[in-house]
Design a protein that fits this description.
About 40% of the residues lie in helices and about 15% in strands. It is α/β, with parallel strands linked by helices. The chain has a single domain, classed as TIM Barrel, CATH 3.20.20.70. α2 packs across α3, α3 runs parallel beside α4 and α7 packs parallel to α8. The protein is globular and about 45 Å long. It starts with a strand and ends in a 15-residue tail after the last helix.
Length: about 300
């Protein structure tokens, strides 16, 4: 299981205080020092709509470049892709929202139009040497239309699977999903695609970690998490932050799944960013601390 760090993008884009480029770069450096190897560092959204991400080029110009680290940029449209390619990101994460109302509010277009645009952007990003993932937003539920059917999401998965992407992500953008929903959507997606699946989970209704464990059991290859549990979607009412990187690390490690991260350095990154934002971290492990490693051979089979 791979943890994809999204704090510098999803974590910061919904916060009131806008960090400087230098503060963002320091935050990213701390995360890389903790062992993060895939990191969504920036978003190339319109600066007037997401001012927290307006300095994406400056941030990418200053991030530490290591062969072991892949930087992801969130891309919403062709102009954003131009900026992403020019800035030197390693991966482009494109977005298609599962419902018409949210897609219009998020990207100013219909789902069909978003899929057509995604096809063009996948071709261009691939030709530009970038890896490409597509995130299906509001896959578990929509703040404007309510329930989202499995078929509605799978129709998008079917189209995206044919575009030659490297990875498909299902996003619980407003944190309404349960483990039953995770098993339902992941199981259906695996009937359609052989591409690696990623989940983007929020803990709005306190089900995020249960959903993460269900994703592990369902064979998902990677999970998004936000340092300190900060952030949320600026276009989704009441969308709180992602599951926290340090809390997810504890859950996986105590379950016998190594994620290769330095816990103390993860806490240092979370402490840094929450201090700069002037907020208390939603994550719990910074307060509770680690628990000694289990002394039984397999944590998943203890009595």
């Amino acid at each position: 299981m791979k943890i994809i760090e999204v704090g510098p993008r999803d974590g910061l884009q919904n916060e009131q205080r806008i960090l400087s480029s230098e503060e963002k770069i320091t935050y990213i450096e701390l995360l890389v020092d903790a062992g993060i190897s895939r990191l969504e560092a920036v978003s190339f959204a319109r600066p007037d709509r997401v001012p927290q991400m307006a300095d994406a080029e400056a941030v990418m110009a200053g991030v530490p470049r290591r062969d072991s680290v892949s930087y992801i940029g969130l891309v919403m449209n062709e102009r954003g892709l131009d900026r992403a390619i020019a800035s030197g990101v390693d991966e482009a994460n494109l977005v298609v929202v599962a419902t018409e109302t949210f897609c219009q509010r998020n990207q100013g277009m219909s789902v069909r139009e978003a899929l057509r645009g995604t096809e063009k952007m996948v071709e261009r990003a691939t030709a530009g040497g970038l890896s490409v993932s597509v995130t299906i937003g509001a896959a578990f539920g929509c703040p404007f239309e309510g329930e989202v059917s499995t078929q509605q999401v799978m129709d998008i998965v079917t189209v995206v699977d044919q575009l030659g992407v490297d990875e498909i992500a299902l996003a619980d953008t407003i944190g309404v999903g349960t483990p039953v929903d995770v098993r339902r959507l992941v199981g259906a997606a695996k009937q359609i695609t052989q591409k690696p699946l990623r989940l983007h989970l929020h803990n709005t209704r306190n089900t995020g970690y249960a959903n993460a464990f269900a994703a592990l059991e369902a064979g998902v290859s990677s999970l998004d998490a936000s340092s300190g549990g900060i952030g949320g979607c600026p276009f989704a009412p009441s969308a709180t932050g992602n599951i926290a990187t340090e809390d997810l690390t504890y859950l996986l490690e105590r379950s016998g799944v190594s994620v290769g991260l330095d816990f103390d350095r993860l806490l240092a990154a979370s402490d840094f960013v929450t201090a700069k934002l002037g907020i208390a971290t939603p994550a719990l492990l910074g307060r509770a601390g680690w628990f000694p490693a289990p002394d039984y051979p397999d944590a998943l089979t203890r009595d």
